[in-house]
Amino acid sequence: MATTKKVSAIKNTPKHLLGIQNLSVLEAKEILAEAKSFIKLNRGSSKKLDILRGKTQINLFFEPSTRTQSSFDLAGKRLGADVMTMNMGNSALKKGETLIDTAMTLNAMHPDIIVIRHQDSGAPNLLSQKVNCTVINAGDGRREHPTQALLDALTIINRKGNIEGLKIAICGDILHSRVARSNIYLMNMLGAEVNVIAPKTLMPEGIDNLGVKSFTDMKKGLDGCDIVMMLRLQNERMQGSFLPSKREYYEFFGLTPEKLKFAKKNALLMHPGPMNRGVEIDTKLADDINVSLVKEQVELGVAVRMACLKLYCK
């Protein structure tokens, strides 16, 4: 009897991962399923595959990064790709070269994948129009951070079994957070109920139009939540005064054991990192292995990025 070949939902040409907003439900689920298959591999003693053997991956990071850059680096190498991470602090951009000129230069080297993080929203999209290879967005301005949302989803699924029907709170600097936007798109897509919690100065206008409920009170926003996702204060994107003081922010919007009691009894907490301890989150809570998924997020980030590299670079 003939077997039916599985058809990939990710069939766009050229193949780029620019944002969660561009994905279908089937595509998102395919990435998550593929990522799940890499978890065991990454925990084993032999982690090397040759899926991307002969492929060249360039990591182009215009903003500082530890977790995202290192996990993309590891992901590419574990799949067998030749990985080059460029130090953009010493690049020709410092001499006045534009992003388009950089794209043209890199394109002439015939890479297969470019992973880009950029301070300007839309930069990955612009790059994808100028090169002949796969472009993966590792975070652009305030717009999106698709692989962070995907690794957050995988972490939740790994612990809770599913996302559909869960109540998820995203708390903190919603205004400046690309992580918040990507997670709102993805969690809604996968059937969760999403609350966003922030002071008025850090809450975007019209946020309710994204299918969330907005709160400026932690007690009300956390009520009945299964997952509490804290965000980093994006100080580098703040121009002007958004907060009276970090101490006051922690008092009203920092996650403490007392505030977590407003959520469900078995609620779990997340944070994309880096954490500002004592500002966004209580240190003991962040390190509590019974509650915190922070380390698991970092671990599963490699699996998600391996899945994205494999599926988008064929």
Short description:
The protein is of the alpha/beta class. It contains 11 helices and 9 strands.
Whole-number radius of gyration? 20 Å
Q: Could you give the distance between the termini?
A: 28 Å
Structural class: alpha/beta
Order of helices and strands: HEHEHEHEHEHEEHEHHEHH
- Strand line-up of the largest beta sheet: 7-6-5-8-9
Low-confidence parts: 236-240
Number of strands: 9
Provide a count of the helices: 11
Shape: globular
- How does the major sheet shape up? 5 strands, parallel
Strand content: 5-15%
Give the helix proportion (percent range). Answer: 25-40%
Average pLDDT score: 91
Please characterize this protein's 3D structure.
The chain is an alpha/beta fold. It is 36% helix and 14% strand. It contains 11 helices and 9 strands. It has helices spanning 25-43, 67-78, 99-107, 123-128, 146-160, 178-189, 218-222, 246-253, 257-260, 283-286, 294-312, and strands at 56-61, 82-87, 113-118, 134-140, 167-171, 193-197, 213-215, 227-230, 268-270. Strands 7-6-5-8-9 form a 5-stranded parallel sheet. A 4-stranded parallel sheet has the order 2-1-3-4. Helix 1 crosses helix 5, helix 2 packs across helix 11 (294-312) and helix 5 crosses helix 6 (178-189). It is globular. The model is unreliable at 236-240 (pLDDT under 50).
Secondary structure elements and their pairing?
Elements: H1 25-43, E1 56-61, H2 67-78, E2 82-87, H3 99-107, E3 113-118, H4 123-128, E4 134-140, H5 146-160, E5 167-171, H6 178-189, E6 193-197, E7 213-215, H7 218-222, E8 227-230, H8 246-253, H9 257-260, E9 268-270, H10 283-286, H11 294-312
Parallel strand pairs: 1-2, 1-3, 3-4, 5-6, 5-8, 6-7, 8-9
Helix pairs in contact: 1-5, 1-11, 2-11, 5-6, 5-11
